[in-house]
Design a protein that fits this description.
alpha/beta; D-Maltodextrin-Binding Protein, domain 2; 2 domains; 11 helices; 13 strands; 38% helix; 23% strand; globular
């Protein structure tokens, strides 16, 4: 009887081990989810970045704007999941990895050089479709006050702030002197700058994520006695600032790259135009489950 009971216990234990191994094997066969922005232009950038990472292959005919349908091969066992760009930081734990724009990564404390698995390489220059811009309604493109805002943004002080604040997550898209020195309080002092709207013309400018750079722009405007006060309106989703600008709710916006603006103009019929380059914010692949690209690939496994 004791032998029978012992045999039964061994048999049940073996079945449990088999079941656990089977479940684990099934789990390991599930694709690793990779979050990407759902808007067309940033999703295209994400797909290109995943190709550069060696996770997928993409049809060369797609050029700079590949879609999911242009993926010709999944080299690793991954599933690409489009999601609203502004949710990818908060949901990073839910994915094996996510491609996140600097607009949202930087305020969340993510540093591409330290936290990223791979970062998009962007060459500076006016032909780069992913350079960020200041945008106005077409009828206002020659507004002299708006030009002053652009000139203030494209200043040495703002360039230094961008470089010091963002640790390489974004770089100025205008000419500046890279040979500069700053003290340890440079960034905090600028972010503590306060201005008053009293006696100044107010210009409403829409942004996504953080509007800290425009504190520095405001300081330059004040130093130049421009008589302009920037009222920074922060939106929580990419689809809102262009709608607000086109409708006249705000005067300018600064949150998007050239390719995204062109896409919005085509799809929404907005009468908007770029009036100045600001910075280049490369897309980066982040993960809380892997500390390197090789580790992420090992986690996903080769596609059968």
């Amino acid at each position: 009887m004791k032998k029978g009971r012992r045999f039964l216990i061994i048999a049940v234990a073996a079945l449990l081990v088999f079941a656990i191994v089977g479940c684990e094997k099934k789990k390991n066969n599930e694709p690793l989810k990779i979050g990407v922005p759902s808007d067309a232009t940033n999703q295209a950038r994400a797909i290109t970045l995943l190709e550069t990472a060696g996770l997928i292959e993409v049809d060369d005919a797609a050029g700079f704007t590949p879609e999911l349908k242009d993926i010709t091969k999944y080299i690793y066992n991954i599933e690409i999941v489009p999601a609203a760009a502004n949710t990818l930081v908060a949901t990073l734990d839910d994915y094996g990895a996510s491609t996140i724009n600097g607009t949202y990564a930087i305020p969340a404390g993510l540093v591409p050089s330290k936290d990223g698995l791979i970062t998009e390489v962007q060459e500076p220059g006016s032909g780069n479709p992913f350079i960020n811009i200041i945008v106005a309604r077409t009828e206002d493109k020659d507004n002299p006050d708006y030009k002053k805002v652009v000139e203030a943004y494209q200043s040495q002080l703002v360039a230094q702030y961008i470089l010091e604040k963002n640790n390489g997550a974004s770089i100025p898209a205008f000419e500046y002197d890279p040979n500069y020195t700053v003290d340890e309080n440079f960034v905090s002092d600028l972010e503590g700058y306060k201005s008053s709207p009293d006696g100044k013309k107010t210009i409403k400018i829409g942004v996504c994520g953080s509007g800290d750079t425009f504190r520095v722009v405001q300081k330059v405007l004040d130093d130049n006695n421009s008589g302009i006060y920037l009222d920074v309106i922060i939106f929580d989703a990419y689809n809102l600032p262009n709608e607000a600008l086109d409708s006249g709710e705000i005067d300018l916006n600064s949150f998007q790259h050239k390719a995204y603006l062109e896409s919005e103009i085509k799809s929404q019929g907005y009468d908007l135009v770029s009036i100045g380059d600001t910075s280049s914010a490369p897309l980066t692949l982040y993960s809380k489950k892997a500390s390197s690209l090789d580790e992420l690939k090992e986690l996903a496994g080769k596609k059968d």
